[in-house]
Design a protein that fits this description.
16 helices, alpha/beta, 502 residues
């Protein structure tokens, strides 16, 4: 083998992003280039490194996609550039995924490769819709057929399929459903044979239409079902073994905005409750690395009686800077810490420090009032926070004539403006800061009429108002848990209203 790069053919699984294998996810987090299909959950792309090259090659029914020959060329080209390439394919690479053709191209060019299996939609989509493809004494085999190409729907093949006793699973066959049904009946498959058609399987948008060979095409046409879809033909299609574990946010979609740190924390919380989360971490934390004022303050840390940290990002930058400056943490033994929010307090706790002041309400105003209440005449306070920190905190200290140094240690900025407008149409969207709202609209995002807005604090709400948005909810507690509780309450209210209307 040559010293070129390597290509990993990774099955992304079907539907939700968390159906990928651990091996596949590990490779995704390490690769130089990812070449991916449209049918994957785009949240998988969030796991790649910031500098990873991302190449979308389509592969969605009814839409433009790269020709297979061009995909092969891309894989060869990137490997020859010395890149570690992940070819991320929906489902499994070898189940109608044309992975074999890609490997043949790699073999012809003497490029190393490895295959990572994925969960195939042929089994997983019916399964997650409550349909087992096999069942004792009812179906002892199942047969996977592509319904997309005419070669697999020729009369001689359809005759064989009609004679099989096991379950028939047709992939990519929605547009040929009428033809499939008619041909199976023509070759003596009972017209009352149960059929289930599952659209957008393994996702929040999953829809199931049930019928039999005689009426399923008409039912699907009336329902205006859209691809991708899986067709299940056989007695097992009558089963409904759907999940009975119902998480409180199942079938609820949320777009989470903000810095990567905040987005990850809130996303994890919401996903535990069953929500489908879309991440919009378009905000970047820019630490001021050349910051002599900050460094001098840390080198003379003993002269301060209180250190104020207003965010998780600020707290992490503070501790990292102590390490870089080789400052012994024991120098903090006589210093008190004041923070906004339990998240920032948790960062301190990880470093063995319990915050002395945490206001009940997580706002700059509440923190300022607490500092005034607990400060003596000779207090000297060090405030470490973002460039766009709220002026309320220092105004309160000024009015109380308390000494402080307010040092800006980082900024939060949005990515460069997108050329095209992106509409958010999830059930909810969350905003954690004014800078997050500004960057959202500067990046050409807009919010659909069906999407409810949840924000943290009055400052964030006021920024929404400046963009002529007045319909929003402010979380009672201004942290991750507060946003989560607000969404849970809204979902519960909707469920009550639905029940009452019925």
């Amino acid at each position: 083998m040559s010293n070129t790069g390597k290509v990993y053919l990774v099955g992304a699984g079907c539907g939700d992003y968390d159906l990928i294998t651990l091996r596949g996810l590990k490779l995704l987090k390490q690769c130089d280039t990812v070449v991916y299909d449209s049918l994957i959950d785009n949240r998988l792309i969030d796991f790649v490194l910031p500098n990873t090259e991302k190449i979308c090659v389509g592969k969605r029914a009814g839409h433009h996609s790269e020709k297979q020959e061009n995909i092969n060329k891309i894989l060869v080209q990137k490997a020859n550039e010395g890149k570690t390439v992940v070819r991320l394919k929906g489902g499994d690479p070898f189940v109608f995924g044309r992975g074999g053709e890609e490997i043949q191209a790699l073999q012809e060019n003497n490029i190393e490769y490895s295959v990572v299996p994925g969960i195939s939609s042929s089994v997983a989509v019916p399964e997650l819709a409550g349909i087992p493809v096999t069942h004792r004494e009812l179906s002892r085999s199942f047969h996977i057929i592509t319904g997309h190409t005419s070669e697999n729907l020729l009369p001689k093949d359809m005759k064989i399929y009609a004679e099989l006793s096991g379950t028939l699973v047709f992939l990519m066959g929605l547009r040929n459903l009428k033809h499939i049904s008619e041909m199976l009946i023509k070759y003596d498959k009972n017209e009352n044979t149960p059929v289930a058609v599952i659209s957008d399987g393994a996702s929040k948008n999953q829809k199931i239409i049930r019928g039999n060979l005689n009426n399923i095409a008409d039912k699907v046409e009336k329902s205006k079902l859209q691809p991708p879809a899986v067709i299940v033909v056989g007695d097992v299609a009558t089963f409904d073994f759907s999940d009975t574990v119902k998480l409180p946010l199942k079938d609820t979609s949320v777009t989470v905005t903000g810095t990567k740190n905040f987005v990850e924390k809130l996303s994890l919380q919401l996903e535990k409750l069953g929500a489908e989360v879309q991440k919009a971490n378009y905000l970047n934390v820019i630490e001021y690395t050349e910051n002599k004022i900050f460094d001098n303050a840390l080198m003379n840390i003993q002269k301060y009686s209180v250190i104020v940290l207003t965010s998780i990002n600020g707290a992490e930058i503070f501790f990292n800077r102590l390490i870089r400056l080789n400052i012994d943490i024991r120098k903090l033994c006589n210093v008190k810490f004041a923070v906004i929010g339990s998240g920032t307090a948790d960062v301190l706790k990880k470093h063995g420090i319990i915050a002395d002041i945490v206001p009940d309400i997580y706002t700059s105003q509440a923190l300022g009032n607490e500092l005034v209440k607990k400060s003596s005449d000779n207090e000297n306070i060090l405030i470490l926070r973002a460039e766009q920190g709220s002026p309320e905190l220092t105004q309160i200290l000024d009015n109380a004539k308390i000494n402080y140094n307010d040092i800006k240690i980082y900024d939060v900025v949005g990515d460069s403006k997108a050329n095209e407008t992106t509409e958010i149409n999830t059930d909810f969207i969350t905003f954690a800061s004014s800078s997050g709202v500004k960057a959202f609209f500067e990046n050409n995002y807009k919010i659909s009429s069906k999407t409810k807005i949840i924000c943290i604090g009055n400052a964030t709400a006021n920024t929404l108002k400046s963009y002529e948005i007045s319909d929003y909810l402010i979380s009672e507690t201004q942290n991750v848990q507060g946003i989560t509780d607000t969404i849970l309450q809204e979902v519960q209210n909707e469920q009550i209203q639905t029940t009452e209307s019925e």
